[in-house]
């Protein structure tokens, strides 16, 4: 009883749902107490309080404290005026003890005059024991840091609770966001990297926009890095630096739609017809011969047309197929051979009178027909699919199934990306992305904007489908997609792309984050601008590591979409020191502010802030003293000069 009296701080004065007010005893206003031979920190904002309601032990966290004056009792009952002042704690109920285990949630509400107590060290430890029991077995513990206000208290989370979930790491630049990402995954690989089951059944793909994790041993030395570079000439790029995606990327409707930025109602159905045509042609024993037959039939239809405008458009498209590299000069040869009869609206053969419509025999003697007979597939797969796109467009125009203005933009967008795609994708490879390692980094630092926008979505779609297949074959398969600087591809406010493309891009990742858990797919995103990221994506995350956020829009985005935060943690976001963050979510029973544990320097990300003065003084002894500014005038101001010419304006 004596010990309980030491920890007793007051009684419940009001209960308003989860918000409870405690009237603090006058004797418990000191900052520290002596309990069981140890100094115990007194009650303050952010502390935990135990409320006894019969045999129930309810736990609350202090959100704020204030003083008020007791006006219900007459002044004569107080010896001193200051005795009228009451100290009130306003706290939120966060959980309860059951069988000596802390559980999150509200089981019961307290009653007025229930007693409130400080937690013992053992009870404090129970509140911060985040290791859960899954299927009768305790989760594996992974220590990630220590409490900021109790640096002797280590914080560990369950491996399954954390990594079998979607994770969000947010914070301004320089707040320690990238370090936290590196620390979490380094610790995971340190614990499990040598396990055979881990190597076989897990795959990690990190999309790195700034090259922070691709260099050296950042996170782990056992990784495969694809350095995607669009600045170099094609012949200078090593095959091993290209993504081994194979032909399935080009000859798949969904992937073509991504590359061509296709609209849903017109362009995507056209791409579907093109893929069907491709599959039909390549099922034939002599695919190139069958394709030549299609071209010859289209030439006959073209030369029997009565619509001049449409026929001239089709000639332009034939030139893209037959005269792809500009060596055949198809259009010049065409009009050397043929011309248009404006009166009767048909093509006719030059130097033959009268100018009658061409016969089938004459058509087969034309230059364009002969070029169609001699057609060969290009050596490059991207050029092949573009040829099929034009042939499908010609066919649609002949039968009036499509309009040129609706389809050509998709083809042109795909063509504009062909050179860049050849630099970053190996279409001839049949290798898996994870052939050499189960941890793959895509370094996009030297890629242009088109590749930075396209490749992450493309590779996410490809690997998501592959993981579905793997998971269908084995329920052990696990895939984790990690996106650093995620606002680059998950933003819903970008003005540099069409609304259709933006919706398609967001839907791709929103499907992964909403449905991926069923197939062993989990997403980790890190960003300095949570306000730019889709609310749907942020709200679907399970665990959050929130570093310093200063921008009001970012703070509001966090408040709007994350329900796990309490008032104390939320108010701390703008003032968190570098390396500290708020941990909240399913892996933590209560939101806590922690200092991320240090990892060896060689595993840190390559993103240190430079110290200019470290290299400003390099080799200063080699400088000619005559070229150095005079010490007395080097930092003089313009106020010292009477000459108008010396003024900075």
Architecture blueprint of SSEs:
Blueprint: H1 2-7, E1 8-16, E2 19-24, E3 32-35, E4 38-41, E5 48-53, E6 56-69, E7 85-98, E8 101-104, E9 115-118, H2 121-127, E10 133-134, E11 137-138, E12 141-147, E13 154-158, H3 159-163, E14 167-170, H4 177-192, H5 196-201, E15 202-208, E16 224-229, H6 253-260, H7 267-282, H8 287-303, H9 308-322, H10 330-337, E17 338-341, E18 346-349, H11 360-363, H12 367-373, H13 381-398, H14 404-416, H15 418-424, E19 439-446, H16 449-473, E20 478-483, H17 487-490, H18 499-515, E21 521-527, H19 535-539, E22 543-546, H20 552-561, H21 567-572, E23 580-585, E24 592-596, H22 612-616
How does this model look, in words?
InterPro entries: HerA-like, HerA_central, P-loop_NTPase. Residues 143-331 form the Helicase HerA central domain. This is ATP-binding protein. Pfam families: DUF87 (PF01935). With 649 residues, this protein is of the alpha+beta class. The chain has three domains: 2-127, no CATH class; 157-246 and 425-603, Rossmann fold (3-Layer(aba) Sandwich); 249-423, no CATH class. Helix content is 35%, strand content 22%. The chain is built from 22 helices and 24 strands. Helix 13 (381-398) packs antiparallel against helix 14 (404-416). The protein is elongated, with a radius of gyration of 35 Å. It starts with a helix and ends in a 33-residue tail after the last helix.
């Amino acid at each position: 009883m004596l010990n309980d009296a030491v920890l007793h701080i007051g009684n419940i004065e009001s209960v308003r749902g989860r918000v409870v007010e405690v009237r603090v005893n006058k004797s418990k206003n000191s900052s520290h107490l002596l309990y069981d031979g140890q100094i115990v920190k007194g009650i303050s904002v952010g502390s935990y309080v135990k409320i006894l309601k019969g045999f129930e032990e309810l736990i609350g966290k202090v959100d704020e404290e204030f003083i008020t004056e007791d006006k219900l009792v007459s002044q004569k009952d107080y010896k001193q005026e200051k005795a009228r002042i009451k100290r009130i704690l306003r706290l939120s109920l966060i959980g309860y003890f059951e069988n000596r285990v802390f559980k999150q949630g509200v089981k019961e509400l307290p009653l007025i005059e229930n007693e409130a107590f400080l937690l013992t060290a053992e009870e404090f430890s129970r509140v911060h024991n985040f290791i859960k029991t899954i299927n009768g077995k305790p989760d594996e513990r992974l220590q990630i840091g220590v409490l900021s206000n109790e640096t002797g208290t280590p914080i560990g989370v369950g491996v399954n609770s954390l990594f079998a979930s979607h994770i969000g790491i947010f914070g301004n630049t320089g707040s320690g966001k990238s370090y936290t990402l590196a620390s979490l995954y380094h610790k995971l690989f340190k614990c499990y990297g040598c396990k055979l089951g881990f190597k076989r059944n897990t795959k990690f793909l990190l999309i790195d926009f700034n090259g922070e994790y691709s260099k050296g041993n950042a996170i782990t030395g056992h990784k495969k890095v694809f350095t995607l570079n669009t600045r170099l000439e094609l012949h200078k790029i090593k095959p091993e630096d290209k993504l081994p995606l194979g032909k399935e990327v080009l000859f798949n409707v969904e992937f073509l739609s991504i590359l061509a930025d296709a609209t849903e109602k017109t362009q995507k159905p056209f791409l579907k017809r093109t893929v069907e045509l491709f599959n039909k042609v390549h099922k034939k024993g002599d695919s190139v011969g069958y394709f030549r037959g299609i071209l010859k039939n289209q030439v006959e239809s073209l030369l029997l047309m009565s619509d001049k405008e449409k026929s001239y458009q089709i000639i332009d498209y034939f030139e893209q197929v037959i005269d792809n590299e500009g060596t055949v000069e198809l259009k010049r040869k065409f009009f050397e051979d043929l011309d248009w009869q404006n009166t009767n609206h048909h093509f006719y053969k030059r130097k033959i009178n009268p100018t009658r419509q061409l016969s089938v025999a004459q058509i087969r003697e034309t230059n364009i027909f002969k070029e169609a007979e001699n057609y060969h597939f290009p050596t490059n797969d991207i050029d092949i699919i573009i040829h099929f796109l034009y042939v499908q467009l010609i066919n649609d125009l002949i039968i009036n199934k499509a309009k040129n203005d609706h389809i050509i933009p998709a083809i042109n967008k795909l063509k504009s990306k062909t050179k860049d795609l050849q630099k970053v994708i190996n279409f001839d490879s049949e290798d898996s992305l994870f052939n050499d390692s189960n941890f793959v980094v895509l370094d996009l630092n030297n890629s242009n904007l088109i590749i930075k926008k396209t490749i992450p979505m493309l590779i996410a779609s490809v690997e998501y489908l592959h993981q579905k297949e793997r998971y269908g074959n084995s329920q052990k398969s696990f895939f984790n997609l990690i996106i650093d600087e995620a606002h680059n591809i998950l933003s819903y406010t970008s003005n540099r792309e069409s609304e259709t493309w933006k919706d398609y891009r967001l839907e791709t990742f929103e499907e992964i984050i909403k449905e991926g858990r069923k197939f062993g797919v989990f997403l980790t995103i890190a960003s300095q601008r949570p306000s730019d990221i889709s609310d749907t994506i942020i709200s679907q995350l399970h665990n959050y590591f929130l570093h310093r956020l200063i921008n009001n829009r970012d703070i509001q985005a966090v408040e709007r979409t994350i329900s796990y935060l309490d008032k104390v943690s939320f108010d701390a976001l703008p003032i968190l020191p570098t390396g500290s963050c708020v941990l909240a979510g399913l892996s933590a029973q209560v939101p806590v502010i922690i200092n991320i544990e240090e990892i060896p320097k060689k595993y840190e990300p390559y993103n240190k802030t430079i110290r200019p003065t470290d290299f400003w003084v390099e080799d200063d002894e080699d400088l000619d003293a005559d070229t150095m500014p005079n010490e007395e005038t080097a930092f003089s101001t313009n106020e010292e000069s009477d000459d108008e010419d010396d003024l900075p304006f």
